[in-house]
């Protein structure tokens, strides 16, 4: 029946169905899913809800599991509705008296709740829940104890935290600042990437840890109040440009002020305890000229609850604005997370939530957009056990089984060793038959097997953070600058520099880009090199001839070649530096890793510091024709255009950036096997056949030739994949296939022209390393020890 209505009528019907039905309709078809998760549909539905919604909705956490909402939520006007989070907190209220101090942040209906060790992001509309490792805190804190003692919300580690959305690209970010005696800095977590990144710019001034932040118009705002000098400041961080700025403050001093977002405007809520009646003022800022005016002003002593009036006399008492209803009633909550309402018609303050069972978290805003690229990538178990380290149940079973088996094996071996002399001395036939060679061999095999399993699990656990690079490349050397310095000095004072050794001079440092930065090249070529002094020059000459010829024909074509030296001990570095001098640092860049870490780590480093919309990895031997990159490029453009139209049908004929769509293309030599055009050595064919079988078992089907060194990714796909790669040597290609399937990134296998070049680094000794890495990958992902940073 819905098919007969047409797409336009279908959308009009879906815009008006309840939220529960929309979540179910996502599973009907791929077309409906793309429609319901599109930004245009979400914006239209938000406008309709604002016009038709009769009740105010708030996100709340229920402390008591057997709570009766009708008892604790009372509103005479019947205009309040609670959306409860799924929480596992103590059933007895007295045991959790400090829960009201647990800090949280919100933006566009998403709730961000930092806890010690973790950053939790939840979408109450869809139930999607994401968790990110927050790393080591600068200070040890007990958030609940500190909050209870201070009367203010304190984030773990005394971070000054904020949560908001980049209004340009739509990504949600968590910002945190640290102020230490000798330094201050700010870090950003883009939840689409899942990696903390330190900003180069420092905060303009100190901000205290006891006040929350507010996100308004693309910027996070912090309020700093100095009670001693009676001064106040507002610090703002633009989430797109990532620049700090100072914002004007209200004309009157706000001692117990709180900054907030009220109807998309920046407000400061201040209470004056020195004035009779505890006057409560809401200052609102006009974003056009940053002028402040009083939007609401009333006395808290008009409350109908005596307990609330008694709390207002404390200096640390504060109130946080939430929303304004259609009837003009003003809703806010206090430091106990209890909801109150100021009635504009009567001038009274009424309590809405009673008892200690409900804590207000944030206003509820329906948000149907997936937090990440795929809604299926999230998890939907709510805020359960937030303070506990999450361990996969499969991993717990493996640990318990290994522990039990090791106990049994150890007992068997001890019994065999202890009884063996007795059996020989007594000559018992039964004991002699027990201690046969076969049984001893079986015992040894069991010991070796479980020993191998234990070693794999332990090593996988040790490498759980191996996707984070040990050294972060921040600058690159420009070899051409040395020649410029030498010529300049010789021109000025040539008699004085006759004996100067210019090799001791430092190269000029060029800022190194990052995969999270916007692309400023069309194509990046990443070339890993390990002892490639002989084969690298010919391959680079052929590559540069092609790139320069294409750039001369197409003025919109821009490129860069990134050479990553994986700890070479020959003249590879000299060859690479010579090419940088010849073609300038803008076209060829050289990154040395210092010591050998593996081909996978070399390619990962190059990918993470490239500038292109399309990123191509290719071997240093030139075994694949460079012109074949056009095959991969054309197929990626075709699939990206189709994916973009599926994601939002309205953008089908609209131009888009190829780097923003997630697509991967794998060069393949599978066709050469059938036509017998590849003349590899026998042991390489043996390795290939055996490796394909193991790959099929570890990563599944999909790509026949995973080990071809000719692969292309869009910038969005590379950012997602290479921030999660854990393997550093030969099997990282298999992990890329596994991650592509995990993220639902389209994989294309395209035939390329390939010929074997003498000097390959693959040998018979590579077999154990390949099997070892595949075992680590299976153990790491299957047990949940290797976390997906942006699944």
From TrEMBL:
GO CC, one annotated term: endoplasmic reticulum membrane
Keywords annotated in UniProt: Glycosyltransferase, Membrane, Transferase, Transmembrane, Transmembrane helix
Listed transmembrane segments: 440-461, 686-703
Residues of the F-box domain: 5-45
Localisation: Endomembrane system
Pfam families assigned to the protein according to its UniProt record, in alphabetical order: F-box, FBA_1, Glycos_transf_2
Any single biological process term in GO: protein N-linked glycosylation
Gene3D superfamilies tied to this protein: Spore Coat Polysaccharide Biosynthesis Protein SpsA, Chain A
Family: Belongs to the glycosyltransferase 2 family.
Name of protein: BnaC03g22160D protein
Organism ancestry: Eukaryota, Viridiplantae, Streptophyta, Embryophyta, Tracheophyta
């Amino acid at each position: 029946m819905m098919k007969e209505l047409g797409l336009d009528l279908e959308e009009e019907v879906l815009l008006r169905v309840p939220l529960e039905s929309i979540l179910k309709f996502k599973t009907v078809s791929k077309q409906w899913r793309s429609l319901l998760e599109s930004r245009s549909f979400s914006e239209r539905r938000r406008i309709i809800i604002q016009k038709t919604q009769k009740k105010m909705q708030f996100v709340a956490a229920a402390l008591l599991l057997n709570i009766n909402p009708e008892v604790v939520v009372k509103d005479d006007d019947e205009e309040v509705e609670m959306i409860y989070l799924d929480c596992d907190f103590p059933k007895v209220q007295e045991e959790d008296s400090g829960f009201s101090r647990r800090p949280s942040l919100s933006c566009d209906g998403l709730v961000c709740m930092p806890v010690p060790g973790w950053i939790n992001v939840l979408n109450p509309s869809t139930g999607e829940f994401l968790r990110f490792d927050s790393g080591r805190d600068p200070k040890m804190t007990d958030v609940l104890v500190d909050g209870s003692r201070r009367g203010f919300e304190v984030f773990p580690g005394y971070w000054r935290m904020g949560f908001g959305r980049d209004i340009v690209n739509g990504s949600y970010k968590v910002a945190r600042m640290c102020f230490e005696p000798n330094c201050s800095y700010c870090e950003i977590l883009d939840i689409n990437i899942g990696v903390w990144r330190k900003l180069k710019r420092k905060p303009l001034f100190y901000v205290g840890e006891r006040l929350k932040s507010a996100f308004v118009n693309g910027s996070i705002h912090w309020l700093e109040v100095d009670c001693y000098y009676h001064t106040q400041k507002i610090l703002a961080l633009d989430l797109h440009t990532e620049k700090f700025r100072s914002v004007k403050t209200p004309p009157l001093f706000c001692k117990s002020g709180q900054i907030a977002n009220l109807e998309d405007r920046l407000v400061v809520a201040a209470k004056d305890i020195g004035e009779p009646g505890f006057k409560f003022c809401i200052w609102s800022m006009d974003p056009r000229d940053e002028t402040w005016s009083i939007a609401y002003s009333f006395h808290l002593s008009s409350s109908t609850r005596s307990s609330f009036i008694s709390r207002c006399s404390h200096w640390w008492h504060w109130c946080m604005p939430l929303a304004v209803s259609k009837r003009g009633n003003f809703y806010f909550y206090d430091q106990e997370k209890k909801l109150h309402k100021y009635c504009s018609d009567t001038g009274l303050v009424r309590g809405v939530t009673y008892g200690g069972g409900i804590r207000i978290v944030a206003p509820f805003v329906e948000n149907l957009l997936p937090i990440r690229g795929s809604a299926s990538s999230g998890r939907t178990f709510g805020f359960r056990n937030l303070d506990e380290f999450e361990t996969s149940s499969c991993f717990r079973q493996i640990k318990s089984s290994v522990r039990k088996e090791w106990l049994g094996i150890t007992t068997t071996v001890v019994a065999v060793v202890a009884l063996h002399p007795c059996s020989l001395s007594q000559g018992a036939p039964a004991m002699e038959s027990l201690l046969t060679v076969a049984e001893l061999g079986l015992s040894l095999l069991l010991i070796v097997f479980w020993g191998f399993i234990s070693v794999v699990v332990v090593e996988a656990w040790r490498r759980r953070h191996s996707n984070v690079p040990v050294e972060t490349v921040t600058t690159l050397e420009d070899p051409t600058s040395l020649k410029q310095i030498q010529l300049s000095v010789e021109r000025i004072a040539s008699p004085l520099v006759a004996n100067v050794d210019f090799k001791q001079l430092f190269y000029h440092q060029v800022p190194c880009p990052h995969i999270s930065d916007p692309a400023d090249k069309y194509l990046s070529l990443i070339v890993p090199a390990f002892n490639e002094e002989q084969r690298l020059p010919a391959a680079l000459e052929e590559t540069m001839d092609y790139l320069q010829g294409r750039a001369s024909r197409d003025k919109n074509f821009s490129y860069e070649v990134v050479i990553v030296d994986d700890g070479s001990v020959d003249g590879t570095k000299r060859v690479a530096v010579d090419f940088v001098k010849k073609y300038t640092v803008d076209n060829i860049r050289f990154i040395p890793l210092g010591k050998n870490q593996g081909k996978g780590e070399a390619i990962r480093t190059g990918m993470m510091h490239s500038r292109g919309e399309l990123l191509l990895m290719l071997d240093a031997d030139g075994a694949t024709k460079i012109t074949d990159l056009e095959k991969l490029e054309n197929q990626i453009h075709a699939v990206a255009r189709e994916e973009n139209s599926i994601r939002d049908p309205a953008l089908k004929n609209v131009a888009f950036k190829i780097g923003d769509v997630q697509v991967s293309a794998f060069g393949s030599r599978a066709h050469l096997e059938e036509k017998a055009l590849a003349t590899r050595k026998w042991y390489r064919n043996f390795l290939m056949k055996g490796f394909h079988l193991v790959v099929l078992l570890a990563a599944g089907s999909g790509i026949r030739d995973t080990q071809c060194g000719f692969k292309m990714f869009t910038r969005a796909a590379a950012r997602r994949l290479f921030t999660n790669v854990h393997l550093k040597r030969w099997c990282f290609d298999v992990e890329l296939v596994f991650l592509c399937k995990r993220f639902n990134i389209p994989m294309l296998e395209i035939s390329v022209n390939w010929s074997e070049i003498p000097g390959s680094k693959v040998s018979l000794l590579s077999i154990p390393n390949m099997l070892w890495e595949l075992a680590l990958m299976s153990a790491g992902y299957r047990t949940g020890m290797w976390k997906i940073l942006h699944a």
